[in-house]
Input
Amino acid sequence: MIDSSDLDLHKLKGVDFIIKNRDKYNIPYIIKGQKGGQGGGIAGFEGHARAFVKVQDGCDNRCAYCKVSIVRGRSRSRSSEEVLRECKVLIGNGYKEIVLTGICLGAYGRDISKDTDLSKLIKELCKIKGDWRLRLSSIEPKDVTDGLILQIKSEEKLCKHLHIPFQSGDDEILKKMTRPYTADDYRGIVNKLREAIPDIAISTDIMVGFPGEKEANFQNTMGFIKEIRPMRLHTFGFSKRPGTPAYNYKDNVSAAIKKKREHTLMDIVKVFTGEFEAMFIGKNATVLIEDKRDKYGFLQGYTDRYIKVSIDGPSSAKSRLLTCQLTLTNQKVYGILLSYSD
Output
């Protein structure tokens, strides 16, 4: 997919279509020989139990380490009408979970009008009838609004799980990253979420080894993680991206120290994962059964709070939302199917 008129790709061997970036959502229709038009969208995801619907692209933030705003440009949203049509098709085709995605999901609608935002889109989507649920992908801390929190609390179709990329728990490093937050801002968001929804699942991203991150800075991040106790963590080492401000930053951290810090944080969060899962052991939960089995032959699935569950069940259970009683064996969560019939 390309937006540049300077390159002539039609002469390349094996090229059948030249598709501009703005037309990427119409790819299935173009390939099928259809125009797509306003009804364009994705109708299915082969081999997946859930469907991913990208509602927004680009980013207006300027984090020092990130190249997205350079490569993707400013935030742009799809129309709510187009998103609704696509989701209705996917739900009609049997998908039981819709995941809303975007480079900066919480910015949805701001480029369209002052009356369009993510909460309004969620409200309209949740009116679609059927046995299905809605999940949000990663969302920036500033976009976790009071309105969104209320929706997560009250809307049955909306999964009680948020992935919020904090990136660091040290104010000095956050400032160098040009993240518009402090660690206290993050604490306030987490506290507000848990006051409203005590059993909400919160997962996060943490970058280690940002230039200038001393041991004291990392200790602050480690203390922050111990305080907010996320149920899941994605941690990764800083890597230089040409064109970003951080590319030229000095005082780099060695690869060995980055890896050590990654492992340290992951070991800490393993405990929190177990504590969070323990809250639901012995209780019933709705699980979306995935399309694949693990190496031991168990079906795999996830609850709305993104707890991974192993299930001894028939293949006919795949791609369905089923009620399971959760049990724990050898620190692994299993699900016993309740009232299941083919």
The chain has three domains: 41-156, 160-279, 284-337.
